[in-house]
């Protein structure tokens, strides 16, 4: 195994493809830091850089770096990203896709959300079929994939043990998502929530951003659709989508037709 492959993760500024961070990027060490650094980021690029070096949640930091050292056998020769996975895609999107968290051997390995895992295989194949991605696969951060009018982010930016972040970890991470959605709000007209966790997580974010959030909050379901009036005469429509996890795709709870129909609806709502 090469020295590069033996590295637990790639530190900021050391040449990982499209690494937004630099050695002097400020690092959040607790929830207050996250809130302050998210609010004060002078640009979307700097926001992504700060997301990508966050160390606010001790349990998540320990897990993501443990996975990056131990690795799965089939990826043993690869270096792992092993850091928080920032949002990516169109900087002025019409559609925002929000997921749960990076996969331990997917985004935590490749440095890009939904990249290098089976959920991503289903997701990007569908996005390509409906015209929201330039290719049907996402295997590495430098594979040439480009999203069309679309951006992606995770509710929690670090891979969690058993794919289950705690409520405290979700809340600590929320300012990263809130600021990212706030930055792209002028153009976004549809937010696709992959799974119930993401559906629940976006409501306080949208409330904070000045959208008129209904009470009680609408229930999650595949195809659930809620239009919200926003600031400055804007609006956004939330779409619920079952997560394309292996459990859902293997059991038929999610099919290719279901994903294609939903993302076609997202395109219509976003006028793409």
UniProtKB/TrEMBL annotation:
Keyword Cytoplasm attached: no
Q: Which SUPFAM superfamilies match?
A: Uracil-DNA glycosylase-like (SSF52141)
One GO molecular-function entry: uracil DNA N-glycosylase activity
**Region Disordered, annotated ranges:** 1-25
DNA repair as a keyword of this entry, yes or no, is yes
Sorted UniProt keywords: 4Fe-4S, DNA damage, DNA repair, Hydrolase, Iron, Iron-sulfur, Metal-binding
Q: Which SMART domains match?
A: UDG, UreE_C
Q: Identify the residues that the record assigns to the Uracil-DNA glycosylase-like domain, covering every copy.
A: 86-263
Question: Which InterPro entries did the record assign?
Answer: UDG_Type-4/5, UdgB-like, Uracil-DNA_glycosylase-like, Uracil-DNA_glycosylase-like_sf
Q: Which GO terms describe its biological process?
A: base-excision repair
Describe the family membership recorded for this protein in Swiss-Prot or TrEMBL.
Belongs to the uracil-DNA glycosylase (UDG) superfamily. Type 5 (UDGb) family.
| Name of the molecule in the record | Type-5 uracil-DNA glycosylase
Species: Actinomadura logoneensis
């Amino acid at each position: 195994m090469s020295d590069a492959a033996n590295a637990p993760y790639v530190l900021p500024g050391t040449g990982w493809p499209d690494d937004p961070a630099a050695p002097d990027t400020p690092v959040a060490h607790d929830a207050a830091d996250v809130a302050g650094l998210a609010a004060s980021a002078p640009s979307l690029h700097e926001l992504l850089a700060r997301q990508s070096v966050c160390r606010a949640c001790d349990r998540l930091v320990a897990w993501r770096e443990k996975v990056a050292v131990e690795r799965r056998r089939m990826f043993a020769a690869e270096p792992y990203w092993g850091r928080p996975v920032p949002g990516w895609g169109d900087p002025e999107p019409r559609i925002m896709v929000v997921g749960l968290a990076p996969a331990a051997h997917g985004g935590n390995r490749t440095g890009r959300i939904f990249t290098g895992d089976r959920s991503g295989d289903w997701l990007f194949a569908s996005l390509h079929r409906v015209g929201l991605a330039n290719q049907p696969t996402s295997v590495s951060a430098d594979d040439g994939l480009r999203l069309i009018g679309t951006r992606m982010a995770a509710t929690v930016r670090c891979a969690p043990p058993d794919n289950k972040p705690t409520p405290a970890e979700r809340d600590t991470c929320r300012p990263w998502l809130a600021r990212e959605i706030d930055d792209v709000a002028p153009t976004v007209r549809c937010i696709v929530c992959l799974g119930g966790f993401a559906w629940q997580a976006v409501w306080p974010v949208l409330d904070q951003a000045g959208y008129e959030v209904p009470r009680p909050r609408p229930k999650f379901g595949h195809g659930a659709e809620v239009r919200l009036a926003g600031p400055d005469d804007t609006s956004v429509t939330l779409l619920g989508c079952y997560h394309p996890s292996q459990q859902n795709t293997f059991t038929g709870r999610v099919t290719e037709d279901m994903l294609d129909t939903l993302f076609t609806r997202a395109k219509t709502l976003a006028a793409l």
